[in-house]
Amino acid sequence: MANLLIKNGSVVDGTGAKAFAADVRVRGDKITEVGANLKAAADERVVDATGCVVAPGFIESHTHFDATMWWQPDMDPLPGYGVTTVIMGNCGFTAAPVPTDPKVRDEVIGIFSFFEDIPPEPFKQLLPWDWSTWSEYKASITANLRTAANFSTYLGHIPLRLTVMGMDAWDRAATPDEIKQMCALLEDALQAGALGLSSNLMDHDGKGRSVPSLKADEAEWAALMDVLERYPATTLQFIPDTFLRLTALEKIRWINGILGNRKVRVQIAGLIPAQKFQEKQIPALMELREELRAQGKDIWAGYGHTPTASVINIRMSLIFAQSGDFVWHEIVTATSDAERERLLRDADWRARARDSWDNKLHPQGLFHMPERLILFDSENRAGPLNVRLTDFAKELGVHPSDAMAEWFLRNGLSSTIDVEPMPLVDEVITKLFADPLSVGNISDTPAHGQMFCGAGRNMLLFTTYMKERGMLTLEQAVHVQTGKLAQHFNLNEIGEIKAGKQADIAVFNLDEIAMRDMHKINDVPDGKGGHIWRWTRPAAPMRLTLVKGEPTFENGAFTGNLPGTLLSPAV
What we know:
The protein is of the alpha/beta class. The protein folds into three domains: 1-56 and 450-561, Roll (Urease, subunit C, domain 1); 59-310 and 424-449, TIM Barrel (Alpha-Beta Barrel), CATH 3.20.20.140; 319-419, no CATH class. It contains 19 helices and 24 strands. Strands 1, 2, 3, 4, 5, 19, 22, 23 and 24 form a nine-stranded mixed β-sheet that branches. Strand 10, helix 7 and strand 11 form a beta-alpha-beta unit. The two termini are 28 Å apart.
């Protein structure tokens, strides 16, 4: 760890205050001085930041690195995008606690794997699983893991129920004794430094079953909230359904009724104000949140600043099942490529698939809008390419489902289809940027690695929203992903360029950075000695990314340093 003096930069300190010219001194893992014309000491390396912004390291507020960081500790491509902290354990999916019964533990892995499109084999083979409670999990990652960025994590409601209730967690409410056990496990986690409790009031699995957290009754929720209230620096996060079943308003009102007068910070996650899908829901949700805040509730809105664009593949994807298309999901779950090809050619399967598209999808299901599907990435370049599925179906004179089956057969089973993104509603996203109680910079990385690359989207705050549309100032674009998030999560040691803060710093030139195009990389272990692909991006790039005073990105490349550690909310 070198002592550094970052000279001649424009400091944007993460508080929302105006940029100012200053030098920043780093000694060890702390910022020790911020001021003009600082003189370098003999033991300091000088970094020339002329023409550059010097900002706090960026925080990714919604990720799923819980397992992936064990086999991808470089967290590619985050260092090249200035990211120094990731928040994980979102949506009720976490790696702790876990049941002692191996069968039920595999259920925890299977749920996480399905909903986040991450292969189950490396979960089972590359994590030590030497924990049951969250505090034991903390001890294991502290002893055994080093990463390119800091991380902070919730305890998930789904594994909490499975740990206590076993397979019954899928089917029923908890007994009073089981609720006591859940509260004890939550208390263990909060004492050990977990961010709080994350839950899921949205998802259904590949068989159409509601996730275990949707089976929790009022008594269970009230008891867990009582535990959270005893730890005022923690947060309750939950994701309601604003996508498919559209139960968000109902569920938020229900949770609020249970919350009552308890002093618990709440984050409503997963708000993405995309046209057609959510533009009617989001304003109503924002109005409800204002109503609750007027009652004195500490309610924050977690939102995405990019559309829900994705890529369809047929090897690993929840996109069919989540749309209610369990016929096409059979292709994803097929045990071999030969079986996939057989099904795609089978006349009976094709008839069932057509019927599914026409009659069985959720009202908001993606495949109701086949005009948004673009035939894009071909394994063998057979084509057609860069045309809409509906145009290809018209050319063949067949149903869009048949056309998609035919395209995969012609182009190879590793080919992918782009989903055209729905533009966001600028009026709503502008309000969310400015809202003092909003949680931005949601990326979902590294989940759904064969659907999209969430990493790098933070650059759009500078390029699209600041430079192109003028919806953000530079100071706001930094604040949204630094100090504001540190405040929400009560991570008081990060988020600002200020003496005494942790030396997590991003140095970049606004004329050099961008969200670079995605490309495939084959580096995800398949559990059989080989690898499968995921999407990633070239670096933005940063001039310098520091985590705890150590460079993780410099001179255009990842440095190989892994200084990241677990961060806990202030007590």
